[in-house]
Amino acid sequence: MPKHGKRYKALVGKVDRDKQYTIDEAAALVKEIATAKFDETVEVHFRLGIDPRKSDQNVRGTVALPHGTGRAVRVAVITKGENVQAAEAAGADVVGSEDLIERIAGGFMDFDAVVATPDMMAQIGQKLARLLGPRGLLPNPKSGTVGPDVSGMVKGLKAGRIEFRNDKTGVVHAPIGKASFDAGNLSANFGALLSALEAAKPGSAKGTFLRSAYLTTTMGPSIPLTLSSGAQA
Predict the structure, then answer these.
(1) How far lies 32's CA from each of 58, 78, 220, in Å?
(2) Residue 20 above 90 pLDDT?
(3) pLDDT(232) > 60
């Protein structure tokens, strides 16, 4: 949406740019400024005190949001044997082995996440790495999408587990729910993400780790957040 639009300017006027809001204040305000005709996604953006050019300072992890993301996640599972039934029972949207690999290689992309068992990773890496990698969909143990517990991985994704990682500028962008969520649920999801991010701080990162944070919606202005002294350490 154009930043000069009357609607956007009116929303910007509701945010005090000289103030750092607590997450409870921001969660309440974000519901007030989410005036689009659809249920906007609420996101948080953290600027980290890392050097993203150094591999040992990159931040990546997963967190189970206690109140989910508000979004239905379509999960594809690449596995075989008894794990096929386990994946289906857990609610996977599409399950297969070599046949599913071929479907994806042929253009099938009707999913939001891909889970795989270790025995399928060689074929996945060979045939799908270039296709899924750039989309952030390539299964990876660090993102909780490769492992023997197919049921647990699928249920976790369906329940609202998200992956976070810094971009090339050292910023982490992550969804924490929808504008329709209760403000308290948004605050709780933010707290879970903040704790996971603090736990993922690289040992080689020096100085202030969490430099700034902003809460925003799909179509709204950003709201500057205050971070506790513990988060700043």
Answers:
(1) 35, 42, 10
(2) yes
(3) no
Assigned token pair, 168: 């090339």
Of the ranges 15-19, 51-55, 225-229, the best mean pLDDT one: 51-55
Contact of 103 with 96, CB cutoff 8 Å: yes
pTM (predicted TM-score): 0.81
Classify residue 79 as exposed, middle or buried by CB count within 10 Å of its CB (0-12, 13-18, 19+). Answer: buried
CB within 8 Å of 172: residues ≥ 6 apart? 45, 46, 48, 59, 164, 165, 166, 197
**For the stretch 187-198, what's the b/e string if a residue is b when 16 or more beta carbons lie within 10 angstroms of its beta carbon?**
bbbbebbbebbe
Q: Is pLDDT above 70 for 233?
A: no
Q: What is the pLDDT of residue 161?
A: 92
Asked if residue 148 lies in contact with residue 117, where contact means CB atoms within 8 angstroms, the answer is yes
CA-to-CA dists, residue 163 to 44, 111, 166, 173, angstroms: 13, 16, 10, 10
CA distances from 88 to 75, 78, 82, 96 (A): 10, 11, 10, 10
